[in-house]
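P.,

For your records, the input lines for the assembly:
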Amino acid sequence: MKTIKELISESLTEVAASREINREESIRRAYKACPELKDIDDQILNVRNNRFIAVIDKDERLIKRFDIAEEELQAKRDKIILRNNIDPEFDVIKNICDKCGDTGFTKGSDGTLKVCSCRKRELETCYENSGMADFTSYKMKNYRDDYLGDASGRKKIKNELLKVLLGLSESDEKSSLWIYSAAPQSGKTFLSVCVCKTAINLGKSAYYGKCEDLAVIGTDTLDDIKRIDFLVLDDFADSVTMTNNIGSILNSILEIRAASKLPTVLVTPFPKTELVNKCDMRISGKLSSARLISKEGR
Ligand SMILES: [Zn+2]
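Structure tokens returned:
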């Protein structure tokens, strides 16, 4: 599972190649519009090559002559560029995205890193790799605070989840495991996916998955989700922990994540007390110290 930072880093070679192609194209156009410019650039190149040989020969007199020749050619070149209205930087390598200088990340006024808008493709790929292939249309901007008439409650939950993801709710002695418990059909999945996407947008590694899918997820992904920055497991229920070895898989994920204080959110329609009572024993021990995102639901 590649993180957004890895995906962007891998694309840098491609971006560098694009910059080079753009430069070559710009030079080709300038030379076509003004053959005189190409001619003088060829002459400058020739003078430089000869000067190089003179340097090897340690022929000071000749070196001086070539230096003067280049100066004269450069002056001529400047005039040609001006007269023909050519961009003086036509042969300079330029960034493809001025917003991020082709790094793929921009920094907000508060210093937070964010994936640049020029990396939509990498973002989409990362969302897909991070368990969200089925939710391409889920976007935070479409999360309505006033859905079902509970504007302040929904906004509070959203902000709480964002705080967990940003590590703003962390304190050393408390658990990094969270329970987001709310009524069915209240938009839990939508919000969970959007918060995971936000994490990736902020350059973090994140994963969204259904709890029951832990039984079918590949071992590589399982290893990855033990160490990513932010994990959300949806449709959590005591019954799920009793089937398909999920109790054991989940237990090892939670143990490793807890040791590194990595935030994990279990999303469920059931109240915490009920889950603590009924879950697989290893899980219920961890749940009892877990923190709550929202009012208990159902
Ligand atoms: Zn950019």
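Two observations worth noting. The mean pLDDT is 92. The pocket of zinc ion is lined by residues 97, 99-100, 116, 118 (CB under 6 Å).

Regards
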